[in-house]
Amino acid sequence: MTPAAELAIEGLSKSFDQEGTALHVLSDISFHTKPGEFMSIIGPSGCGKSTLLKIVAGLDLQHQGKVLLSGKPVDRPSQDKGFIFQEHRLFPWLTVEKNIAADLPLKDPVVRARVDEMIRLVRLTGFEKAYPKQLSGGMSQRVAIARTLLRNPQVLLLDEPFGALDAFTRNHMQEALLDIWRENRTTMLLVTHDIDEAVFLSNRIVVMDAKPGRIKTILPIDLPYPRNRIGTSFQELRTQVLKALEKEASPAADTWDI
Fold first, then answer.
1. Does the keyword Transport apply (predicted)?
2. Are residues 128 and 97 in contact, defined by beta-carbon separation less than 8 angstroms?
């Protein structure tokens, strides 16, 4: 496995030109992750969370400030930065194992062994020959995660990957993602609107405000794993995150799941 990476964001700002007027999306964003850390970003709609993730992925290079992965500037997309979208984006004509391998030859013994390892890791043993139409939404998303992890990314970027799932499946996928993280120890950066999801998964939570997007606070989540969603300590941290979101918020612009 590729060693987990430290992600460093320093003085990051981003603007778009809107009919000759600068639209400021992100303002002076700075934070570091520790190698192998699980960090979530939460904030109201329009605070630039997804834009920030695209910049970290190297998909948007038109910005000010620095983005460093293991001390090296992020200046292009690459396999050391895995990206999981809300939609799984599987190839419908390929089986689970072939979707995971994608452009890699399954006949290669090394690739075959790695694909089998990923299938076990995401709990899809027995579904190797299934097609996406035969899978649930949660299973399809696990295939997408396995495909990304097969490339040994230093950091896994997740843009609301469970937002389209029902509550029961979302909870199950959060637990599955934690199992993958604990075993793989890939540095993870998750964008979410879901406060419970952020508290359940994260070592730390970056709370953002909008117009322009900026960091309000970074909250440590000092709870042991596995976490009890109905426990007193969990609920206290959930309330702390909600209060941080509500402080100086604009009700007309802000939406999040509580």
1. yes
2. yes
pTM over 0.90: no
Half-sphere exposure (Cβ direction) of 25: Cα atoms closer than 13 Å: 20
Taking domain 1-80+155-161+171-258, whether its CATH number is 3.40.50.300 is answered by: yes
Range with the largest mean pLDDT of 10-14, 46-50, 139-143:
10-14
Query: What letters, b where the CB count within 10 A reaches 16 and e where it falls short, cover 224-243?
Result: eeebeeeeeebeebbebbbe
Q: What angle do CA 25, 31, 35 make, to 5 degrees?
A: 130
Question: What DSSP string runs through the chain?
Answer: -PPP--EEEEEEEEEEEETTEEEEEEEEEEEEPPTT-EEEEE--TTSSHHHHHHHHHTS----EEEEEETTEE--S--TTEEEE-SS----TTS-HHHHHHTTS-TTSHHHHHHHHHHHHHTT-TT-TT--GGGS-HHHHHHHHHHHHHTT--SEEEEESTTTTS-HHHHHHHHHHHHHHHHHH--EEEEEESBHHHHHHH-SEEEEEETTTBEEEEEEE---PSSP-TTSHHHHHHHHHHHHHHHTT--TTT---B-
What tokens appear for 104 in the block?
Answer: 């890699």
The whole-number pLDDT of residue 101 equals: 96
Q: Taking the domains of the chain in order of start, what are their residue ranges?
A: 1-80+155-161+171-258, 87-151
Structure tokens that stand for 251 in this block: 């009700």
